[in-house]
Amino acid sequence: MAGKNFWVICIDYQPKIYEGAWGKNIQDKTKGSQFYRGFTSRTDAEAALNKLRDLDIEHVPAKVRQNVEEKENNLQNGQVIVFTDGSFKNGTGKQAAGWGYYGKYKKNDEINPLEAHGNVKGKGAKQVNGEITAALNAVQAAIDLGLQKVDLYCDFWNLMLWDCGFYESKKEVSKDFVKQMKDLESQIEVHFHWSPGHTGIPYNEKADELAKRGFDEA
């Protein structure tokens, strides 16, 4: 943390810039925060904060449900609303992660379900692999259907923070995700939304169920 005196910290789902060295004051602010990142200059911190401007990080389940219902009621041709999720369980001995997505799309004035599930197998497969695969597969499915816009909901912060560039993609798994997602985004309009998990949001619960099924089938 040496040399970093400017911090973008998301507290109570409101990202702001805080100034100070990495000491007790800043550390206390990061505890319980949704996410944070340190910078050596205010200019860099402001640039990072701007990357978060367009993200939907509504955290009240009732409001998320309401927003999704409104989007569903006003769904346009070529548009899809889809929730994605990953699944992993320790202690099973499985080297795999499950993935699943569930949503609805409109094409030719008809609304249809969009859903799928599966698993990622391989040494070191974890929850993040399922989360990434679910998001990429959901967007690819929308492209294959000839749709033009995706409202993508996920309950894993890192996906949207990697995609917007707030988090640096240092590991291969995140680098690969960003590369693949950017390629998909060149073919279709994608809007990321964060969804609180396990809070009774129907689409999210269905995606979670499908991801768990994918893991169980591995």
Automatic annotation (TrEMBL):
GO MF annotation, one: nucleic acid binding
Name of a matching Pfam family: RNase_H
Cited Gene3D superfamilies: Ribonuclease H-like superfamily/Ribonuclease H (3.30.420.10)
Record-annotated RNase H type-1 domain positions: 76-216
Catalysed reactions, semicolon-separated: Endonucleolytic cleavage to 5'-phosphomonoester
GO biological process terms on file: DNA replication, removal of RNA primer
Keywords: Endonuclease, Hydrolase, Metal-binding, Nuclease
Protein name: ribonuclease H
